[in-house]
Write a structure and sequence with these properties.
It comes from Hymenobacter frigidus. The protein has 209 residues and is an alpha+beta fold. The chain is built from seven helices and four strands, in the order ααβααβαβαβα. α2 packs across α5.
């Protein structure tokens, strides 16, 4: 069942599953079934990548099945994120392979491709009634040390995965973020048709930073 909390309203109609994708901090206690978990991560395989390298890797810790991995990922998070992320049934780390397999040259597009894969994963999760919340507030060094990540691989982000829960369970400040209106920049602010805008034509005043 799709999550209809804070469905996004845009200037032009898009796929409903895209309007339903969000980044919640409130999670239900229900575990993610193994089949659904595998389906979500399998969706990453459909993403495009430079030379078909598929440089994405994911460390996954389900609280019930891999508690040690779950705890290590949680410990890598900043204190602010730990407050709410410890309720999610699954924590994961996206990781980029930094060199091409076919010639060992640096892959300057690895992080971009990992982002594409994770975005695709997020849409599949939304279709299944799940949601993910991606975080930059974590220590790559702690992840690298806890899981013995080789030097050629770089932790990119940590994300939660689970079924959205009751926002009332969150502290006041986070509850407001969970239920407040979602705002997106208008097309004119990021889609430049035909040429780069002049300073006068830029519309950075159209959406909050």
């Amino acid at each position: 069942m799709a999550d209809t909390t804070n469905v996004l309203t845009l200037e032009h109609p898009i796929l409903p599953v895209l309007t339903q994708r969000r980044s919640p901090r409130a999670y239900a206690e229900a575990p993610v079934p193994t089949e659904a978990l595998h389906q979500v991560f399998a969706a990453a395989s459909s993403a495009a990548s430079c030379f078909g390298e598929q440089p994405w890797r994911y460390l996954v810790g389900a609280r019930a099945e891999q508690p040690a991995a779950y705890d290590s990922i949680l410990a890598s998070l900043g204190e602010f994120n730990q407050v709410w992320a410890n309720k999610a049934p699954v924590l994961a780390v996206s990781i980029a392979k930094l060199h091409f397999s076919h010639d060992a040259n640096p892959n300057a597009w690895a992080r971009h491709d990992v982002g594409q894969a994770t975005a695709t994963l997020a849409i599949q999760a939304t279709e299944l009634g799940l949601q993910i919340h991606q975080m930059a507030g974590f220590s790559p060094d702690k992840i690298r040390e806890s899981f013995n990540i080789p030097a050629d691989y770089e932790p990119v982000a940590v994300f939660t995965l689970g079924y959205p829960g009751d926002a009332a369970t969150l502290p006041d400040g986070l509850r407001e973020k969970e239920t407040g209106p979602r705002v997106r920049k208008p097309l004119a602010e990021f889609m430049f048709e035909g040429s780069w805008p002049t300073a006068e034509g830029e519309r950075y005043d159209q959406a909050p930073v």
